[in-house]
Design a protein that fits this description.
CATH topology: MetI-like fold
Distance between the termini: 21 Å
Structural class: mainly alpha
CATH architecture: Orthogonal Bundle
Strand content: under 5%
Largest sheet: none
Number of domains: 1
Shape: globular
Number of helices: 14
CATH superfamily: MetI-like
């Protein structure tokens, strides 16, 4: 019976596998081919030329990559510390109120990311909603809170909060209450229960949420443009410039491949650390 289920599952997955191969793997293959083309070439078929990869170091594009990865890492760490108490409450404390909180968080996703970031830009800009009202009420003028690294990280935290919150709540919900009570009966305090019970047993949710936020943050561009004013140039902005204004598709493709390889390697490493059967509820 088990072999029959596996065969049925395999054949059922063929249509989706073909769709993924055509819509996901094929474009990646084309990008990989373009990354080996000579500069300023707009068609395939030329002799391989890896000069675009040399520009990654010679023209300082690695700095943009380091900025993207570092801000994604910092925002992911901040999101974890912000979301853990809220996720714990959703999984263990709030009960029926969890549905209300979930709806409130999900509703923010119904509005475009760019519109929400424009709202923050109008709020934090010089003479904007915050500074304008403060100056009118108190006479105190604040400098612009935009166009710096900190506000970009704030934008990443704000936009990707749901992608950390819900996997964390799912991971914490998988922690058996009996295990926590047993640790308390053996004399463990709250910090010890957190470190030796909650965190290890909820690690699948932590890993999924961290991967989602890090991967999305590393490829984000709107936050640096709308809130940072391009005070920091991220790798996604360099990729867009190469494909559009620069009209250098091989350079854009090579930068894309470098980002894909780094993010893909981290994602594969993280996924290998996750028990997917437990996450999907197939094993307890």
């Amino acid at each position: 019976m088990e072999k029959l289920d596996r065969k049925l599952g395999f054949f059922s997955s063929i249509p989706l596998g073909l769709i993924l191969a055509i819509s996901f793997l094929a474009p990646l293959f084309v990008v990989a081919l373009f990354s080996t083309m000579p500069q300023k070439v707009f068609s395939l078929g030329q002799l391989p030329d890896f000069s675009s990869y040399k520009l990654f170091f010679n023209q300082g594009y690695y700095k943009s990559l380091l900025w993207s990865l570092s801000m994604a890492l910092i925002s992911t760490a901040i999101l974890f510390f912000i979301c853990w108490p809220l996720a714990f409450g959703m999984a263990k404390v709030f009960k029926k109120f969890t549905l209300v909180l979930t709806i409130a968080v999900v509703m923010s996703l119904f509005v475009s990311e760019n519109i929400r970031l424009f709202g923050w830009s109008l709020t934090l800009m010089k003479g904007g909603l915050l500074e304008g009202h403060l100056r009118a009420w108190t006479g105190i003028a604040l400098p612009s809170l935009l166009y710096n690294t900190g506000i970009i990280i704030f934008g990443l935290v704000y936009v990707y909060l749901p992608f950390m919150l819900f996997p964390l709540a799912q991971g914490i919900a998988m922690v058996p209450e009996d295990a926590r009570q047993a640790a308390a009966d053996l004399g463990a305090n709250r910090w010890q229960i957190l470190l030796y019970v909650d965190l290890p047993l909820s690690s699948p949710g932590i890993m999924v949420g961290s991967l989602l936020c890090f991967v999305l943050g590393a490829g984000a561009m709107s936050e640096s443009k709308l809130l940072g004013g391009q005070s920091v140039i991220v790798i996604a902005d360099d990729i867009e410039t190469a494909f559009t204004f620069g009209q250098n598709w091989p350079l854009g493709a090579s930068l894309s491949m470098i980002l894909i390889i780094i993010i893909g390697a981290l994602a594969i490493y993280g996924i290998n650390k996750i028990d997917l059967d437990t996450v999907m509820g197939r094993k307890r």
